[in-house]
Design brief:
Strand content: 5-15%
Shape: elongated
Low-confidence stretches: none
Strand order of the largest sheet: 1-2
Number of helices: 4
Structural class: mainly alpha
Radius of gyration: 32 Å
Number of strands: 2
Mean pLDDT: 85
């Protein structure tokens, strides 16, 4: 369930957030004791703003789908009217009131419903694609982090060897 994800500032995001814990229990079945790729993916799904945007767009298209087949409301408009057969001394202008009823014909409401359904389905797929992109970004960031840790270990080892060489040269 991702409908209750709050909007948070970057500073408010934390792995110890109580609402995040509830989200993880609802979707992962537990609050992880160690953070692996799967649990970090769910954290990314919870906090990533692109997913929040995609979910909002999906909710918007779902609302449009619910209203797509509805009959349009009549409109009432007041426009200025002009009386060319006016009497002398009386203003030729008067308020004209129009009441318009729209009657969709040729199955247009059905087409509108089908189009709204297709747009809602496309927005749902957009949420899935965004989630996949977030997961891919996370995997890339974790790979970069692991590479940086190995590079740091190699640099430390190289520095230690160079210290030993300096000692031997003295």
């Amino acid at each position: 369930d991702t409908s209750s994800v709050p909007s948070l500032t970057f500073a408010d995001r934390s792995l110890s957030d109580e609402r995040l814990g509830q989200f993880l229990v609802a979707n992962l079945g537990r609050v992880p004791s160690t953070w692996d790729f799967e649990s970090l993916s769910w954290v990314a799904f919870y906090y990533h703003p692109a997913l929040e945007l995609a979910r909002a767009q999906w909710a918007s298209t779902q609302a449009a789908q619910r209203t797509a087949g509805a009959r349009p409301n009549p409109t009432l408009s007041v426009t200025p009217g002009f009386d060319s057969s006016r009497q002398t001394g009386v203003s030729p202008w008067f308020p004209a009131i129009n009441l318009d009823f729209l009657f969709p014909t040729a199955g247009k409401r059905g087409f509108q419903r089908d189009l709204a359904k297709a747009e809602a389905e496309a927005a749902r797929f957009s949420v899935i694609a965004t989630a996949w992109a977030v997961r891919t970004e996370l995997r890339s960031a974790l790979n970069e982090f692991a590479t940086a840790l190995r590079r740091e270990a190699n640099c430390r080892a190289q520095a230690e060897v160079q210290r030993e060489l300096l000692k031997l040269q003295q």
